[in-house]
Write a structure and sequence with these properties.
Helices cover 78% and strands 0% of the residues. It is mainly alpha-helical and 161 residues long.
Length: 161
């Protein structure tokens, strides 16, 4: 066997191994982000008055209503992401929450993090990192180990009948 043949064989085997593990990326992303939102949403409900005051201090209109909406979006959206149900819509709603966070509470830190004199980087801003993962889930979906995939499979089977 030549070196080229050995390299081709190794490359094929490596690609095959990686292909069998591709389910891990969307699963790990959903579980991590889902738990993060579930915990922060529950925390917002547990400290609701503080969140309302924080939103009011940021100049967010109707702080009580918006605090309730954000807390609910985070709890429900986090749970949906966790199990992989309605992943794309849940990620879209939570992306909106992250954009608002970037425009309000995290805006100054986020903008400064792109400067060369900053001691932080954009990856130090949680709302930015969460937004990137959410956009990835919107683009690529929940993955094979999800309720979304199960629902699609059941729907396809019913259509075949």
């Amino acid at each position: 066997m030549t070196i080229a043949q050995s390299m081709t064989r190794f490359s094929t085997a490596a690609r095959s191994a990686v292909d069998r593990l591709t389910f891990l990326a969307p699963l790990a992303t959903r579980v991590t982000i889902g738990l993060g939102f579930l915990h922060t949403g529950i925390g917002k409900w547990q400290h609701f008055d503080n969140i309302v005051q924080f939103f009011a201090g940021l100049g967010i209109p109707f702080p009580t209503v918006n605090a309730g909406l954000v807390a609910t979006f985070e709890v429900v959206g986090g749970a949906l992401l966790l199990v992989g149900l309605l992943t794309r819509p849940a990620a879209a709603v939570l992306s909106t929450v992250m954009v608002v966070a970037l425009l309000t509470s995290d805006g100054g830190t986020f903008l400064a993090s792109w400067g060369s004199a900053s001691e932080t980087s954009p990856t130090d801003v949680a709302s930015w990192v969460f937004l990137l993962y959410l956009l990835w889930l919107i683009a690529y979906g929940a993955g094979p180990l999800s309720v979304d995939r199960l629902v699609r499979w059941l729907r396809d089977r019913a259509a075949e009948s």
